[in-house]
Amino acid sequence: MSQDVRDLVKQYYPSFPIRHCGKIYRDTTEFMDISYGDVICVNGLHYMVLRDEVERRFGIEDPKFWVKRCKHLETGERKIIKLVFYEKFSLKLGEVKILCHRSPGKESRILDLVRGDMRFMQGVSYYDEKNNNVRVLDFIRGKSLDIVIHNIEEDHESYFRKYFPEILEKFIGACEAIGFMHSHGEKHGDIRRDHIWVESETHKYRWIDFDYSFDFYENPFALDLFGLGGILAFITGKGDCTVGYLLERGFTKEDLAGLTEDDFSIIFHHRLVNLRKIYPYIPEKLNNILLHFSRGTDVFYDTVDEILSDLRPCLDLLGS
Amino acid sequence: MDPKKILIAVDASENSLRAVEYTGDMLGGSEGFHIGLLTIERFPDRDLFETEEVWKTECKKHQAAYLDFMAKARKILCDKGISEKQIFSRYIESCKSPLKSPPLICSMGTNIAHEIMGIIESEGFGTVVIGRRGVSKEVEFLFGSVSTKIVHYSKGCAVWIVN
Fold it and tell me: What pTM does this model have?
């Protein structure tokens, strides 16, 4: 147990149990060793590690050992610290495999680009004494978009008429934010509905997690566009409209008998995107946007602007 | 647009090789044609590499492969009966190259098809030849297809797609 950490705790965090005080880390290379009670010191500032972050998907918690939830001792603010982890892995999207990389440098560059733009998470990058990149991110109080949608206890039509117009308006803002990134030659890299964080206080949509990178041949932004299409289908359908999901929500097999392969996602073949077939009050213009992400399409969006120019007029078609 | 001014857009792939061979077979021994061999340099993204040095090494390998391919393509065309003076080569460097400062005209690499179309229009090519990978709709959706985009965007020129 380090006396240094005890001293810092006494000064800045007296309620922290002394018996859990760990070590001060100025070199973050071995991030697996850094855990609860340790202090990361960068740029002369001290961050008490409270726990490793976890990603929750399908009810399973997946620990992210290179991401630490911390308390900034000097200010008492909650922070997320991301340490260097050069991970390469194959991402399977439907039948397509994509080689993905985790790039701390990319995330740092984007943090610089979006500084002060509250459509994105905010943070600064420092370097530890071994020149490892350490990203110190502001903590966003709120919930991910999928949880927000999930928590709306309404049937689809009521949801669509009462809540969806505002959700779509905010989603358009989120698309514009991605367009801003693209216009600066950057891609988000991991556009998912749980990477839009809905801030509790302001209800603003904010993008998080920019450290994924991948090499695409002719469409460098295509995966981002596909991600936006996936979120649009999710918010329009109030969930992933798989056949199983729809049967659970009262549709019969006869109701779904008219669906064809072409009505489902070009990549995730089990997700329905031609939603107007089951929810006929969805405006055709909005549904046509979704069809660009269907197996039946021969026309793909190349840019966020193309999506936006189709999406913005849909706002006027909504409402009770 | 001069239909006898033909642009073969190549990278260092098998598909490009087929496009070169096909053009040679079609035009070998003919007079009045001019063939431009175009390569647009495209390097892997810097973000995919841990250090600048590793990235540079990979870029050098890519560049060598492109230049070797262009020399090979020129030889194939000559062997098929097209004279040296009928062939000219264009190599467009990447604006993001770590190997040297890019020239004034360079490739941003975000839409190769548009860049090819720009050269066709500005230099008056009447025919463009390109090899196709033959990918599924899913792959085309995600990874893009230069040949499909050229078919969609081209105006006033013939497009030869070599499968």
Answer: 0.87
